């Protein structure tokens, strides 16, 4: 029995298919099938039911799976211990994010860490805020960057890395384009362009509108602030955006400060309070916290 066979077995079980497992493992599908067949011969039992449209574990496969995972985890643990003794940092770091302003210089942060620790594999995925938060809490992601709105759940730590005013952006020919500011109350009944429900910016907009006694009329949603600005530039509504998102398009848009009250958009670095188990992930979180601003105060 080889560790590679156990790795393939776990991948097929988790992906419910040989093709998806092969893609995950970056190997050819026939090779995965052959190794699983060899493992089944050594075990003397079939581990997968291949009769249906999807591959399912047999009763024996279900019983064996926890032990296969434990064996692979033990080997990973041995490697980490050796790496810590030798000073070599390797492993994998999973980061989740939403569209972040350029002031954060995420590429620079990632490149600097990679230069220091070239043996660490870094994966960056974009996802929606709710999924991102769930994945950080569960440990599927080591770190997340997202807009902040409302209270963070217990067990999640936050470092505020962006705190900027939210503004209203309109087409140059819009009736509001000549003004320098607009109150929250004046947003009532205007067709607004905003980020989707659940984002920090959308939550901030909904909270101030609720305080003024109305719900915002959001005519268009865009997950990317730059796209929202482009929609406003086409005359499709009033975009509520962070200052940094309209800076590059200020010549094409009329930009108004939002007052009474002033709206602010915040983004935060989030991670589990208990911390990740991987030394690589711990090192990356420390690096990100040093590299990015800390605006909590």
TrEMBL record:
InterPro entries xrefs: HTH-type_LysR_regulators (IPR050950), LysR_HTH_N (IPR000847), LysR_subst-bd (IPR005119), WH-like_DNA-bd_sf (IPR036388), WH_DNA-bd_sf (IPR036390)
Gene Ontology terms for molecular function: DNA binding; DNA-binding transcription factor activity
Coiled coil: none
Pfam families in the record: HTH_1 (PF00126), LysR_substrate (PF03466)
Keywords: DNA-binding, Transcription, Transcription regulation
Keyword Ribonucleoprotein appears in the UniProt entry: no
Location of the HTH lysR-type domain: 1-58
Any one GO cellular component localisation term in the record: cytosol
Gene3D superfamilies listed in its UniProt record: 3.40.190.290, Winged helix-like DNA-binding domain superfamily/Winged helix DNA-binding domain
Keyword field contains Transcription: yes
Protein family per UniProt: Belongs to the LysR transcriptional regulatory family.
Annotated PANTHER family: HTH-TYPE TRANSCRIPTIONAL REGULATOR YBHD
The protein's name in its UniProt record: DNA-binding transcriptional regulator, LysR family
Gene source species: Nonomuraea jiangxiensis
Taxonomic lineage of the native organism: Bacteria, Bacillati, Actinomycetota, Actinomycetes, Streptosporangiales
């Amino acid at each position: 029995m080889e560790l590679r066979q156990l790795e393939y077995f776990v991948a097929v079980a988790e992906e419910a298919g040989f093709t998806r497992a092969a893609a995950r493992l970056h190997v050819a599908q026939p090779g995965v099938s052959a190794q699983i067949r060899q493992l089944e011969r050594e075990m003397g039992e079939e581990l997968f039911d291949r009769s249906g449209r999807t591959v399912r574990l047999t009763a024996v496969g279900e019983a064996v799976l926890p032990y296969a995972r434990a064996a692979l985890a033990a080997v990973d643990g041995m490697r980490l211990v050796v790496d810590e003794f030798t000073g070599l940092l390797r492993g994998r770091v999973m980061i989740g994010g939403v569209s972040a302003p350029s002031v954060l210089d995420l590429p620079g942060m990632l490149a600097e860490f990679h230069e220091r620790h070239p043996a660490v594999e870094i994966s960056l995925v974009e996802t929606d805020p709710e999924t991102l938060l769930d994945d950080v809490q569960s440990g599927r992601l080591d770190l997340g960057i997202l807009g902040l709105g409302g209270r963070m759940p217990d067990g999640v730590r936050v470092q505020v890395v962006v705190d900027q005013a939210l503004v209203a952006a309109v087409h140059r020919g819009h009736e509001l384009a000549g003004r320098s500011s607009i109150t929250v109350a004046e947003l009532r009944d205007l067709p607004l362009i905003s980020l989707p429900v659940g984002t920090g910016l959308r939550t901030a907009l909904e909270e101030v509108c609720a305080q003024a006694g109305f719900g915002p009329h959001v005519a268009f949603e865009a997950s990317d602030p730059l796209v929202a600005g482009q929609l406003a530039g086409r005359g499709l509504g009033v975009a509520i955006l962070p200052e940094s998102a309209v800076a590059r398009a200020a010549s094409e848009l009329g930009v108004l400060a939002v007052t009474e009250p002033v709206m602010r958009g915040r983004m935060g670095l989030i991670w589990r309070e208990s911390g990740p188990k991987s030394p690589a992930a711990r090192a990356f979180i420390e690096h990100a916290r040093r590299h990015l601003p800390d605006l909590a105060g």
